[in-house]
Amino acid sequence: MSNPARPSPHPELDASFVERQRTRLEALRDELLGGEQRIIAEQRADRELHGNEAREYEDEAQSMAQREVDQATRNLNDRRIGDIERALQKIEQGSYGLSDASGKPISRARLESTPEAIYTIEEERAREAGA
């Protein structure tokens, strides 16, 4: 069971908003982790079904392409799960809604659309660009 959210130092966020965000973050984390388990189970089932069978070149190419897509999805999900965990930690610390990079407030609209946001939109763009 989670602790009630601490009051946020963010001027736009009240305790009920932060608590709703906690619930959303926990549900999103569970959904993403469930998706990871599904991908692993599908890959295992495919190996068990087709284990040592000779495969056509086209089948192998399609399988390789699917593995690349699955890996890209896992990489994205891993990053999101890390951000979700950090956002949940920030709720516990009472700093949810403040950027990890600058300490500036993250807009409420951004937090509503991306509850795991731990950077302002500008900082996130720089992060994605590799800056």
Structural class: mainly alpha
Estimate the global geometry from the Cα principal axes: elongated
The CATH topology comes to Four Helix Bundle (Hemerythrin (Met), subunit A)
CATH architecture: Up-down Bundle
The CATH superfamily is identified as: DksA, coiled-coil domain
Number of domains: 1
SSE topology string: HHHH
Count, helices: 4
Main sheet attributes: strand count, strand direction, barrel closure: none
The low-pLDDT segments are: none
N→C terminal distance:
38 Å
Indicate the percent of residues in helices.
55-70%
Count of strand segments: 0
Whole-number mean pLDDT: 82
Please give the radius of gyration in angstroms: 19 Å
What's the CATH class label? Answer: Mainly Alpha
Strand content: under 5%
Question: What features would you describe in this structure?
Answer:
The protein is mainly alpha-helical and about 130 residues long. The chain has a single domain (about 15-130), classed as Up-down Bundle (Four Helix Bundle (Hemerythrin (Met), subunit A)), CATH 1.20.120.910. Helices cover about 65% and strands about 0% of the residues. It has 4 helices and no strands. It has helices at about 15-50, 55-95, 110-115, 120-130. Helix 1 (about 15-50) runs antiparallel to helix 2. The longest helix is centred in the middle third of the chain and has 37 residues, at about 55-95.
